[in-house]
Amino acid sequence: MINFINIKFEQSIPNFHFLGDANLPYKIHQLVECAQKDENSHARILWRMDSLNRSIPNILVQVNSEINKERLLSKIKNLNLTANIEYKMLEPNFENGQTFMFKLRANPTKAMPVLGSKTSKRIPLGVVKDKSIPCEEKNKIIYTELKKWLDSKAKNHGFSIINCDFFKEDCHELESILQGKFSSYFNSVLFMGTLKVTDAVLFKHAIQNGIGSAKSFGFGMLSIKRI
Questions:
Q1: What's the pTM?
Q2: Spatial contact of 189 and 146, defined as CB atoms under 8 Å apart
Q3: Closest Cα to residue 163, out of 207, 100, 91?
């Protein structure tokens, strides 16, 4: 069973300040975690920020367990925010061969080992820094890298891509201190298109648990709609 929450912010000064926070992904992560049943619950939570009709953004949240509406509302109130909240519950069941329209904001990266360290550093895919490469060739490189990443994820998660468009949104690096200094990349790419279910069991797992890395920061939620 999956619980879906749609948090629609109202147009207010506190809301605009909150949504304009430099640490917004972490702030939203803290907010949506309050949808957990209690402090001891650690169910998978996925979320994505969308904007409808160019209005103030809303947050789509997916929780794979019972939710605590009062706890979530209390957190929103404590942040001095105002929002309309909609709830929906679904039991996902799929069959091989089904086709769906899909939407996925992902963080396409690859892990590269750090020289002299046991840790790895995530490098964004679809990013060409060499300014000497012609624009047309650069676009081909970006398309090839991102398509290869999505096709690989699709194969491992029980579906195939029928058609897809992607929109590169932003890419930034966050530095952290954990047994030495290292960086984490968030490479935001929005994929939209049509898919076909090839393995219903794996596909259900992908819907429930998301795809790719940085799920706590608004990436990985695979949304689908029947055609």
A1: 0.87
A2: yes
A3: 100
| Number of Cβ within a 10 Å radius of residue 34 | 18
Q: How far apart are the C-alpha atoms of 209 and 39, rounded to whole Å?
A: 20
Most confident segment among 109-118, 138-147, 156-165, 212-221 = 156-165
Residue 102 to residue 196: CA distance in whole angstroms: 10
Q: Is 90 helix (H, G, I), strand (E, B) or coil?
A: strand
Q: Print burial letters for 116-139: b (CB count within 10 Å at least 16), e (below 16).
A: eeeeebbebbbbeeeeeeeeeebe
Q: Kindly report the length of the chain.
A: 227
Euclidean distance between CA atoms 51 and 169, whole angstroms = 14
- Asked if 107 and 214 touch (Cβ cutoff 8 Å), the reply is yes
Residue 122 identity (one-letter amino acid): R
Q: Are 164 and 99 in contact (CB under 8 A)?
A: no
**Is the Cβ–Cβ distance between 25 and 169 less than 8 Å?**
no
Cα(156)–Cα(123) distance, rounded to whole angstroms? 21
pLDDT in tens, 41-80: 889 999 999 875 556 778 999 999 999 999 999 999 999 9
> Residue type for 175, please?
E
Cβ atoms of residues 103 and 192 within 8 Å: yes
- Nearest-CA neighbor of 60 among 222, 225, 227, 226? 222
Using CA atoms of 183, 119, 48, 62 in order, give the dihedral in degrees to the nearest 10. -150
Q: Nearest-CA neighbor of 218 among 60, 59, 48, 101?
A: 48
